[in-house]
Amino acid sequence: MKHRVLLAVAFVLLLAIGTGTVVAANVLAAQRLADDGRTAAQERTRGDEHGPDGEFHRFRLGSIAGERLEPNRDDFAARTDRDGPLLLFLPATRAKPAQYQRFLATALGDGYHVLGLDYWNLGKTLSGTCEADARCYGQVQRNRFDGSRPSRFSQVTPAGSIVSRFRNAIEYLDDHDPDGGWGRFVDAREGIDWSDIVVAGHSQGGGEAAYIAHVRSVRGSLMFSSPVESLGAVHAAWMDRPGRTPVARMYAIDDVRDEFGPRIRGSWTALGLTGSSGPFRTDTAPPLAGADPHAILTDLGLGDPGQSHSRIIKDDTPLASDGTPVMLPLWQWLLHRFANTPGETAGSAASGSPAVPGFGASTAPVEASRSSDRS
Q1: pLDDT score of 67 more than 50
Q2: Distance (Å, rounded) from C-alpha 124 to C-alpha 275?
Q3: Which of 330, 337, 333 is nearest to 247 (CA)?
Q4: Of 172 and 353, more confident
Q5: Would you say the C-alpha torsion 104, 294, 244, 151 has a positive or negative sign?
Q6: What is the pLDDT of residues 89-115, one digit of tens each?
């Protein structure tokens, strides 16, 4: 009889502990929601079975602050070294992060944390929306960046903005890879430490990367077939003012056959990327050691003008006989501007780095000093 009483007491205690744990979890979740208006990452986000340590992890944020995200395509994230800088990559108009896995794998092999982020890039292209309206470009890009200043051109909400999606993605990754160093890119007040982030993008995404570098001091900016923000003598008005990130930390690349080439090179001139001698011209060979051009124009025969605009960076880029992208040396040269060992060039560290299955991209890590610019 005594044993039965003890068992009953133990059962009641276990039940009480379990109930208390559930209640505490609900209270904490409610407090979290009250503090920042967001549900816990694990409650609103779904991903694949893999984590971001050493291989790509696909996930979707779903909703933020009760607002269902549109579009809501898979984000891609991975990391190797917990101390590497972050590459934030933004796709072209109507494109998805999943279409850039070869380039993202190259960055992963270079020691970067990698985040290919979905964002509002539907509808018309930015250049098609704004044409010769110089102020329109900045209005659209600011709205997509942080959800402020909606206009007839763009009406992204704060919850659906790049800043909001980025913060939520980092929270999710930090939850699922707590030893991965993801949390250092967002502080306790949810400010973003842009000083350790390289913003990169293709076409409209590259223009957005350039705009982010204009309004925030980022570690670096990489623009592929972009920005497409000039029309004859007119270009985006924001380019007329000095930005928070100096031109010395901004690089752009395009192919000579790109159908949007004149509009892109006009933007490069407005940003001061071409210098006095114009873009550096090449096939696939990176600049020589010691050279540091900030605008690169390739002549690769990537296809027709439309294909040239996309195949410089997308997964349908031409492959060499060994299966690696013909663009790989130039991708690596650009990525090495901001990776972990100062002064290392693209060809000097191709061994000893993790390879990503199926892509064969392998380079060594490279480091620059960190400063703080949280916003």
Answers
A1: yes
A2: 31
A3: 337
A4: 172
A5: negative
A6: 999 999 999 999 999 999 999 999 999
Using alpha carbons, select from 183, 182, 184, 223 the residue that is nearest to residue 202: 223
Q: Which 8-state DSSP code applies to residue 316?
A: T
pLDDT bin (cut points 50, 70, 90) of residue 22 is: very low
Report the distance separating Cα 73 and Cα 51, nearest Å: 18
What pLDDT digit, counting tens, does each position of 222-249 carry? 999 999 999 999 999 999 999 999 999 9
Alpha-carbon gap, residue 315 to 165, rounded angstroms: 24
pLDDT value of position 161 = 98
User: Which tokens is 123 given?
Assistant: 């509808």
Q: Which residue has the tokens 């110089």?
A: 134
Q: Count of CB atoms within 10 A of residue 131's CB? A: 12
* Among candidate residues 57, 58, 110, 104, the one with its CA nearest the CA of residue 81: 110
Residue 51's pLDDT is 72
What pTM, to 2 d.p., does this model score?
0.81
The neighbour count for residue 98, using CB atoms within 10 Å, is 17
Beta-strand ranges (E) seen in the chain are 46-47, 57-60, 63-64, 67-68, 75-78, 86-90, 113-116, 197-202, 220-224, 230-231, 234-235, 250-255, 280-282, 295-298
Look at strands 230-231 and 197-202 and give their pairing: unpaired
Q: Does the N-terminal peptide bond of residue 227 adopt cis geometry, omega within 30 degrees of 0?
A: yes
Report which DSSP code applies to 103. Answer: H
According to the model, what pLDDT value does residue 135 have? Answer: 97
Let me know: does 46 contact 39? Beta carbons within 8 Å.
no
Half-sphere exposure of 362 (CA within 13 A, CB side): 10
- Answer for the pair 251, 335: CB distance below 8 angstroms, yes or no: no
* DSSP conformation letters of 124-179: S-HHHHHTT-HHHHHHHHHHHHHS-S--SS----TTTSHHHHHHHHHHHHHHH-TT
Measure the CA–CA gap between 336 and 90, rounded to whole angstroms. 19
- How high is the pLDDT of residue 360? 30
